[in-house]
Automatic annotation (TrEMBL):
<feature type="region of interest" description="Disordered">
    <location>
        <begin position="102"/>
        <end position="153"/>
    </location>
</feature>
<protein>
    <submittedName>
        <fullName>Uncharacterized protein</fullName>
    </submittedName>
</protein>
<feature type="compositionally biased region" description="Pro residues">
    <location>
        <begin position="106"/>
        <end position="122"/>
    </location>
</feature>
<feature type="compositionally biased region" description="Low complexity">
    <location>
        <begin position="124"/>
        <end position="133"/>
    </location>
</feature>
């Protein structure tokens, strides 16, 4: 590999970057510095010049919400560009170019011409018959008016059936598809939770108010953890000691997938997950935060979902 515009340190740095990143995979700037300095290669100056020549590129990688919540920071990645790969690995660059040239898009099928419209035959004019002269009906004999039957008075101590039956049930306030509740029940089951009757009421309230199914499920999870924290204050065995915090981390990762799939709005996801992390994170003020959350008339009435059996032992204790 000869290039009069590059010196030895720059060429050596490209070789190190190709070995670390398997040709095109970007690597962390810190890993590149450790590997290059271990071979006595300068890093700062060659990186800036190679970046200006278009042989390498720097990528600012931002971690996801969950990783940022537990302290992850942005990472600077360094990778080879197509021209940089062609400089240090000509064979790999030619193979990638050949694979791109082999792909030939299939031609779109030509639409068939629409058939010519067939003219419809003209309808024959309708013949309207004149109605015959009406015949006057014979006068009917006047009927004698009947006396209205007197209503039978009902006794005050009569049974409900006698007085007209039970009153009709009031119509439901929210019309929620039962299939949505069953789908959320299966989702919670995959997380190890069991939906309760209180959870069905909470889902009906949230879905009827216009929440997405994923947002309603997130509310069930949040209030289930709040009830678990409340039980921790009086139970002999603590759910937090039995692994409630680790379990919450796994649940938050699954809910983040719902957010990525468009089932939960970004604002609702941020609010619910931050409230959940406050419940299982720092111990100071944890009980007060749980009680403030359980002031909700529906979510705070009863646990909307039961935690996994191994964590439920804390509440039963």
């Amino acid at each position: 590999m000869q290039n009069p515009s590059l010196d030895r340190s720059e060429i050596a740095l490209l070789e190190v970057l190709a070995e670390l990143g398997a040709d095109r995979k970007p690597v962390e700037r810190g890993a590149l510095q450790v590997a290059a300095r271990g071979q006595g290669i300068e890093v700062a100056r060659p990186v800036n010049r190679l970046k200006g020549l278009g042989f390498i590129e720097e990528i600012d990688f931002q971690p996801g919400f969950f990783r940022r919540l537990i302290g992850a920071r942005a990472t600077l990645l360094v990778g080879l560009t197509a021209s940089g790969l062609a400089l240090v690995r000509p064979a790999a660059a030619e193979a990638a170019l050949a694979a791109a040239e082999e792909f030939v898009p299939e031609p779109e099928p030509t639409p068939e011409p629409a058939p010519e419209p067939v003219p419809e035959p003209e309808a024959a004019p309708e013949i309207v018959e004149e109605p015959a002269a009406p015949v006057a009906p014979a006068p009917a004999k006047p009927k004698k008016p009947r006396r209205a039957a007197a209503e039978k008075p009902m006794p005050l101590d009569a049974y409900t059936d006698t007085l007209g039956g039970l009153p009709e049930a009031a119509p439901a306030v929210f019309a929620v598809d039962p299939g949505q509740i069953e789908a959320i029940r299966e989702l919670l089951g995959s997380l190890g939770m069991e939906l309760t009757w209180a959870g069905e009421e909470l889902l009906t309230s949230r879905l009827g108010a216009g929440d997405r199914p994923g947002e309603a499920a997130s509310q069930v999870v949040l209030f289930a953890f709040a009830h678990a924290i409340r039980h921790d204050q009086t139970a002999e065995a603590s759910a937090l000691a039995l692994g409630l915090k680790d379990y919450a981390v796994g649940v938050m990762q699954e809910i983040e997938r719902l957010r990525d799939g468009g089932e939960i709005a970004e604002a609702r996801f941020e609010a619910d997950m931050r409230a959940l992390w406050d419940l299982v994170g720092e111990p100071e003020g944890r009980a007060a935060r749980a009680e403030a959350l359980l002031l909700d008339p529906i979510g705070g009435a009863a646990p909307p979902a039961l935690l996994p059996e191994e964590l439920r032992e804390a509440e039963e204790g």
